[in-house]
Amino acid sequence: MGTATHDPGAGAWYVSFHGGEGDRARNNLHRYANDGAHLGKALRGRGLPRGLKLRELRGFVLGPDGDLYVANAYRDESQILRFRGRPDPDGRHPFREVFVRQRHADHGLAHPFSATFGPGGHLFVPSQDSDIVGRYYGPHASGPDADAVPGRPMPHPAALSDIAADQLAPGTFVPSVRRSADGLRAVRHAIFADGDDLFVADRAENAVKRYDLESGALKRTYRHRLLQAPVHLLPWPERGALLVGSRDRDAVVALDLAQGDARDVVAPGAGGLAAPSGIAWGPDGLLVVGSRGNRAVLRFDPATGLPVAPLLTDLPDQPEFVRWLSPPAGR
What we know:
The protein is an all-beta fold and 331 residues long. It is 0% helix and 41% strand. It contains no helices and 24 strands. The chain has strands at residues 12-17, 29-32, 38-41, 57-62, 68-74, 77-83, 95-103, 116-117, 123-127, 132-136, 172-174, 187-193, 197-202, 207-211, 218-223, 230-236, 241-246, 251-256, 262-266, 276-281, 287-291, 296-300, 307-312, 319-325. β9 (123-127) and β10 form a beta hairpin.
């Protein structure tokens, strides 16, 4: 697939891939136009600290400062990397800094799956190898507390006050079930929805868990027969629902956040969907879903669940995260 001419300041689809070994696993966040044209790699590799590799790229998000934050994990070290939010004339985002960095041996930030900013502007990161959601001071952090430095782990929330601090990794906001029965067994995507609550997919529990932002307390666990190995999440505020990729059913489910009921929005296998990954809203209102099983990114009418023309097919690797991003001006 060739690289198309495109205004680097315009919106584009950003797609991260599974990775692994070989050249295709390097710097594996790409940009695509809404007609499916490949716009090239999204990140500028120059200026990285010595020894840092752009490998195992996963979730990414525009922060409250307008910069692009990317989850990166390769071998025994993990980072949240910060890039300029607006691409350069070649369509790539220049590197700014390592925003958060930990060795896997610290059992905190370890193989981060995604990154999201909460209503207060702080960063929340689910880590697959430690099965926690960590919380880190956001880019605008300041105040009398000497530890309120952007990128540093934040204090543990009140809900964890009964657990000895030395039993929790720095920055733990939601712990593993190894530390608390209200924790996570196999953490995947984490996002904010329905106000200020944090929703986390727990793949091993076939559940989505809802936590209070202020206290960190578990407010509700959503389970339903249609939720089988949930991984990716997407708010659907107009319907009071959360869209959940049901990985083992090859389907996308709408979870009613008030009633706890669920229904299929994309039926199992519709349009060829196999092992759904990233879920996103397109600029045209269509529902866009990564399909790992056949290396495609598919599109659906959310009102009917019927497939429309795919966005991407015959990809070189399995898509992970899919998001439409419009870079802010001047960043």
